[in-house]
Amino acid sequence: MASSLTCAGIIWAFLSFLCAAASCVGFFMPYWLLGSQLEKSVSFGTFRRCSYPVRDESRQVTVMVEQCGRYASFQAIPSAEWRICTVVTGLGCGLLLLVALTALMGCCVSELISRTVGRVAGGIQFLGG
């Protein structure tokens, strides 16, 4: 297993992967904001929500759905700001994963990552962050 990375490059690759994985898990988990509504514990993030109110039209009451799930559509996300946050955070996670997986491949493949590619990858990581 030949590598063109230095010791610092190998550490960068593994830390990049750990940070990208943590960012993606944080993006998909619905525990950004916690609170209560209708005497039930609720939580939501930009992408998912748990224990949310739904209007029951047959009985004309609001009931709590006690399960976690994604929003039904992109337009169902509560506000334009949350929609923008969902897109920006998702793109950032994608960029971080791209760089991290490329860096991990650089640990195994000789001459995959040069000094220029490393600098470009660092810039992409900065943009993703």
TrEMBL record:
Matching InterPro entries: LHFPL
- Cleaved signal peptide residues: 1-21
| Localization (cell) | Membrane
- Quote the cellular component terms of the Gene Ontology held in the record: membrane
How this chain sits in the membrane, per its record, is: Multi-pass membrane protein
Q: Which residues cross the membrane?
A: 87-109
Keyword Ion transport carried by entry: no
Q: What is its main location?
A: membrane
Question: What's the name of the protein?
Answer: Lipoma HMGIC fusion partner
The species this protein was found in: Dryobates pubescens (Downy woodpecker)
